[in-house]
Amino acid sequence: MKKLFAGGLLVVGVLGGVVGAAVGTVVAGAVWPASGVMAGGAVCGVAVGCGLPVWGARRLGGWPRWLPVVTSAVLAAVLGAAVLWPGERAVPGQAAAYWELPTGSRLAYHLTAARGTVRPEPVVRLHGGPGTPGEAADGLDEELSLAGYQVYAYDQLGSGDSPRPAGLGGYTVQRQVDDLEAIRQRLGAERMVLIGASWGGTLAAEYLAAHPDRVAQVVFTSPGALWTPEYTDEQAGQLWDRLTPEQRRRIDGLGGSGPRLPLWSALMALDPAQAHVLLPDDQADALFRNLLAISGSAATCHPGEAAELPVKTPGFYANQLITADLRHRPDPRPVLRTVHVPALVLRGECDYKHWEVTREYRDTLPGARLLYVPGAGHAIAVDRPAAYRAAVLAFLTGAPLPGAPYTGADDPAKR
Q1: Contacts of residue 269, Cβ cutoff 8 Å, sequence gap at least 6
Q2: What span, in angstroms and rounded, lies between the C-alpha atoms of 258 and 383?
Q3: Percent of the chain beyond pLDDT 70?
Q4: For 308-317, what is each residue's pLDDT tens digit?
Q5: What span, in angstroms and rounded, lies between the C-alpha atoms of 17 and 49?
Q6: Which of 56, 115, 166, 377 is the most exposed place for a label (fewest CB within 10 A)?
Q7: Whole-angstrom Cα distance, residue 150 to residue 280?
Q8: The whole model's pTM is what?
Q9: DSSP state of 229
Q10: What phi and psi values does residue 264 have, to the nearest 5 degrees?
Q11: What is the pLDDT of residues 4-25, one digit of tens each?
Q12: Across the chain, which distance is largest between two alpha carbons, in Å?
């Protein structure tokens, strides 16, 4: 009977060691989120959770004195290998030019220089995500340069070719607004033309509310929610809503079946700084890149088919933490209802964002016009690049739009 109880205690020791390692990691990380400290906490957790039950098993079973030490050590080694073994890595590229901003951000950017007579307001393009620059080469920059615009495209903090900051504190909406204002000042421009896609549209609206006198014109391409707390994820619409069964199956297989990702996921909910230690930027960005490679076509009218993929390394922590911060932003709509800046809203037929999200831009901004683009998804520039360029260029240069603005209340895709 003693042997039976001893065997049971051995099983308890192994399970207790696993739980102890997780608890020790979290407790130590809460004190100081550093890899050595968290690893030490995990070892202590294994020693307590595994060592004590195995010590009792040794006493009952008359087994060797070294059993608790060896069992704990082996379990710690196995767990360490499973959790800490480095996965695939993705690192930022090297851009030709960077802005060093007074906000503390170092941002990669590219200038497509104007040809001929230079217009006074530069165009600044705001990518989506957050954290996913370089979604598609749409040819818009070149056409705008021919029309006399200086066109700047930059990688937001912690995204694309911009370096990842050591800490996570900069991943806020306010930091993105402050960076954009610092960019305007660096360019020496009284006003800018903003072109924002997806999350970039939300950022453009946030900047417009904060600095309405600094925006000459603004284009919202498939914008995200104007004020995120107004919608649940289900009400706003998500990329995942358009995934095919095969895409879902492939996404479910990302990251393997070990304990690392479940622990990381739990830490993201509890303390992102600890999650950042467990899965550093290069590994988290690689995982995010693979996720986008699988799911990217869901942003078009043809989910599951081959689609043009981002050519830059996406920023996972920028994506997750800025998205979370959107839930805590003050409502910009009262200010935006008083802003008289020419605005164009572009809506694709297959956009996964629900119609109400897009319509709110048109209905909130005085004089805003909404153009419906048949045969295009959330990524209008991928599905209908020529139509996208024509609409934006016409709006910015004051030419007639290539279609009548949509003024109805109902989703045009359901007419």
Answers
A1: none
A2: 38
A3: 92
A4: 655 689 999 9
A5: 4
A6: 166
A7: 36
A8: 0.91
A9: G
A10: -60, -45
A11: 666 777 777 677 767 877 787 7
A12: 94
- SS3 state at 189: coil
Six token digits for residue 391: 């609409």
Would you tell me how many other CB atoms lie within 10 Å of the CB of residue 228?
Answer: 21
What is each CA distance from 340 to 12, 34, 192, 249, 365, in whole angstroms?
Answer: 68, 49, 15, 47, 7
Which H or E element spans position 206? Answer: helix 199-210
- Rounded Cα distance between 152 and 141, Å, is 8
97-100, strands of its sheet edge to edge:
97-100, 106-112, 151-154, 123-126, 192-197, 215-221, 343-348, 369-373
Q: Please, which residues have CB within 8 angstroms of residue 408's CB and are 6 or more apart in sequence?
A: 415
Contact 254, 287 (CB under 8 A): yes
* Tokens of residue 235, six digits: 């009400």
Task: State the amino acid at position 396 in one-letter form.
Answer: L
Any bridge partners for residue 347, and if so which?
Answer: 372
Q: How far apart, in whole angstroms, are the C-alpha atoms of residue 83 and residue 99?
A: 37
pLDDT at position 316: 97
DSSP conformation letters of 292-303? HHHHGGGGSSST
**Cα dihedral across residues 315, 320, 323, 324: positive or negative:** negative
Q: What is the pLDDT of residues 244-260, one digit of tens each?
A: 999 999 998 887 667 77
Q: Which residue has the tokens 């099983």?
A: 11
Q: Residues 173-211: pLDDT tens digits?
A: 999 999 999 999 999 999 999 999 999 999 999 999 999
Secondary structure E strands in 97-189: 97-100, 106-112, 123-126, 151-154
Query: Is 341 in contact with 312 (CB distance < 8 Å)?
Result: no
The pair of three-digit structure tokens given for residue 176, joined into one six-digit string? 């993105």
